Amino acid sequence: MTSEESSIGSETAHVGAHSQALDRMWSRRTLLGAGLGAGVALGLSGRARAQSTTHQPAGGHRPLTPVAPGDLFLLVNRTSQGWSEALWAEAQSRGYDGYLEWQLDHSNIADTALDTTLTAFPSIFMTSRQIQDNYVVPGMTNVAVAELKKACVLRSILSKRQLFEHMVEFWTDHLNIDQSDGENQVLKTTDDREVIRAHALGNFRDLLKASAHSGAMLYYLDNFSNRNTGVNENYAREIMELHTLSPGNYTEADVRELAKILTGWTIWRPADAAYGTFRYRRDWHDNAAHTLLGQVYGPNGGQAEGDAALDQLLDHPACANYIATKLCKWLLSYTPPQTVIDAVALAYTQTNGDIKSMIRTVFMPDNVELAAPFQQPKLKRPFAFVTSLMRATGATFTTTASAGAQTLLTELVKFGHMPFAWGPPDGYPDREDYWGNAVLPRWNFAARLLDNSLTPISVDVTTLFSGVSQAQCAERCNQILMGGRMDPVDVAEVHAFAMSFPSLTTQVKRESLALAASSPSYQHV
Q1: Which residues form the domain of 363?
Q2: In the chain, N or C terminus with fewer CB closer than 10 Å?
């Protein structure tokens, strides 16, 4: 046998063993209970349906280590874009309350390395006018579009302000804008900087009002053309349905009236020096009297009645409940107890919408215990799966961060989770039934990342597994990815895989870590 034939044979053996291990991992979690194809077909959502918090059937998922009040591991996982050993060490040194307050005080967390990296994307610091002149006019619109997406990915992976980035993702979905929608290739950059990022850990009242004056939002939901001679109801409907009150708390008459109240709320156009900024046109405003949710405005209320209408929505009890519900679902559980939602809604009301106060309430130990999030683990959405695996493995870029980010964006397209690319106004779903069947792309991404096949991204397994014996390989994978919280069944499968080879080569380390990252345990948080 030639050396080339020997190499091919060894590689085939590795692939076969890896595939068989994945098959065993996932077949245990499916109700069909047989084969890789069945595991993929049923997917993660099938695994969720098999869950129970007490006795588990053979196909069920065992809950992770039971949550206790003040569980630090949960806090780190649910307030970040991915657990890492470095972040865990920081949390352990600060303790539960200290870590949460440190992350909430994001502006005082130095992020100089990331700041330097982001200078490669000058458009993210520009006004819409500047982007129009420097990118659109020269025919480089796609460059500005890509720079915002790349910055989003790199911030999630590299930032020390992990809770802040986690909340930026949340509010980006809550106030969703499709960047590919016409002029939003320009306008969304300013919205991301001056609306979402400016208020992600501030006050929801300020956030909503900034959004209501955002050129990107007014363009996306057509209010920029809303005038007395042609009323457009799109924004009025979505600000009540998706941004504040939620369905069932307003009528179609309220939609029509709010749309009229917001006539004249438009933006400066591309030919104007102030392109993309808010403009109130008095000559477009409907000056009749209007009744919104029982309250009368006008006549001749002007721009002020629009501002007052926003306050009315923000002060409505349904708004407090809706925002509290979404926050609890994002941070704790798909089905948070109403008592926890009520506590967060009360924090909203008492603080006039202070986001930090609501987050503190979410993570009060008693509320965490009530929500029992370890009994109901949340599926990582594809973006979170990618960023968390990059963070956990300490992946680096062998060329530029921009090139690395582009590689990751290409992968996110395959997942259907590209930043700023969700068309409808409701934002990317945060539901297991939506994302749960796309298992194979996760396996492929983990395998390619850990094999250093995603140029120019590199994972240094030599350093990660320094001093680790073959018998310790699986437990080291467990520690790298989940701080030792992986399901013992999955750890045992990784151990059996690692021990099936004559020695712990670099390739075995890579494949063992990829197998662990493909396990059912690692898909959830």
Answers
A1: 317-371
A2: N
Reported pTM: 0.91
Percentage of residues of the chain with pLDDT beyond 90: 85
- Of the CA atoms within 13 Å of residue 55, those in its CB half-sphere come to 1
Is residue 465 one of the residues assigned to a domain? yes
Residues 426 and 488 in one domain: yes
Q: How far apart are CA 299 and CA 53, in angstroms?
A: 58
Give domain status of residue 424, yes or no: yes
- 3-state SS, 126-174, equals CCHHHHHHHHHCCCCHHHHHHHHHHHHHHHHHHCCCHHHHHHHHHHHHH
CA distance 525 to 521: 8
Q: How far apart are CA 41 and CA 46, in angstroms?
A: 9
pLDDT > 70: percent of the chain: 88
Average of per-residue pLDDT values in the chain:
91
User: How far is 57 from 61, CA to CA, in rounded Å?
Assistant: 8
Do 513 and 389 belong to one domain?
Answer: yes
Rg, C-alpha atoms of the chain: 25
Residue 215, pLDDT > 80, answer: yes
Residues 346 and 311 in one domain: no
Confidence of residue 60 (pLDDT cuts 50, 70, 90): very low
- Is 229 in the same domain as 293? yes
Q: CA of 333: how far to CAs of 104, 299, 328, 375, in Å?
A: 20, 46, 7, 9
Domain match, 239 and 357 both: no
Number of independent structural domains in the chain: 3
